Amino acid sequence: MTAAADGPVPVVLLHALALDSSMWDAQRAALERRGHPVIAPDQRGFGGTPLGAGPPSLDAVADDLARELDRRGIGRAVLVGVSMGGYAAMAFLRRHPGRARALALLSTRAQADDEAARTARAGFAALMEDPVRGPAAVESTVPRLVGATTRAERPQVLARVRAVAARAAPASLAWAQRAIAAREDTLDVLRGADLPAVVIIGEEDELVTEADARAMADALPRGRLVVVPRAGHLPPMETPEATWAELDALLEECAALTAEGEAR
Fold first, then answer.
1. What's the rounded Cα separation, in Å, for the pair 16 and 131?
2. pTM of the model as a whole
3. Which terminus of the chain has fewer CB atoms gathered within 10 Å of its CB, N or C?
């Protein structure tokens, strides 16, 4: 039995853009087997969650999570976010300091978009709202969410990603792109996050660079960088065992620090 199993802590799993909480099924099952309470919300507009009428904002997503934790009587939790979920996790760190016990950021970046990236996201958001061109654009971009190895050797994973992404409402995709484009640089937030942390990136990620991931790991006082072989932008789905191993190690570190604090 691992240290993490001796002291279960709540774990939040935040999903990627165009997907929903089902992308975490393998990790959720592993966590629950160890006794950890798992909070895996469908973010605004995805899965079964209404988009609402508010303007696009990751702060709103972070505040949704804070309310959900309050509803469950959870003060602090381990935050795990992939891609858009990582942006939401960093917004949560900034808006609700002291509520994270540990942090895992996957396939995401802390820097704000530059003008070219914001313009591209605005164009993609507008495209999503086009009933003729939007569905084809989603279909053509989905393969980039996984790595070359997955496309070649794990067609069932790509098929699953396609199926989930096809269910995403165009308005939700547009809202999320605009929220991501408007996000703040959070490197300073990470520098102040003195907690167990891991930054994970797939070796074959076509959307986020290893340099982006290394910048986050270097900013985090206790951060470490893990590059997952044979994975692209979605390691939890492409290489679930490798992703679980890193989350388990993070939880063990979190439990060891808790035990050390109690011993003092």
1. 23
2. 0.94
3. C
**Helix, strand, or coil here: 241?**
helix
Domain boundaries, position 16: 3-263
CATH of the domain at 227: 3.40.50.1820
Of 259, 262, 264, 263, nearest in space to 6 by CA: 259
Domain tally, the chain: 1
- CB neighbour burial string for 176-202, b if at least 16 within 10 angstroms, e if fewer: bbbbbbbbbebbebbeebebbbbbbbb
Nearest to 164 by CA among 144, 146, 142: 142
- 8-state DSSP, 122: H
Tell me the per-residue pLDDT of 24-49, one tens digit each, with 9 for 90 and over. 999 999 999 999 999 999 999 999 89
Strand partners, 100: 77
Strand residues in the chain grouped as ranges (E): 11-14, 38-39, 77-82, 100-106, 197-202, 223-228
CB count, 10 Å around CB of 218? 13
Tokens of 136: 């084809």
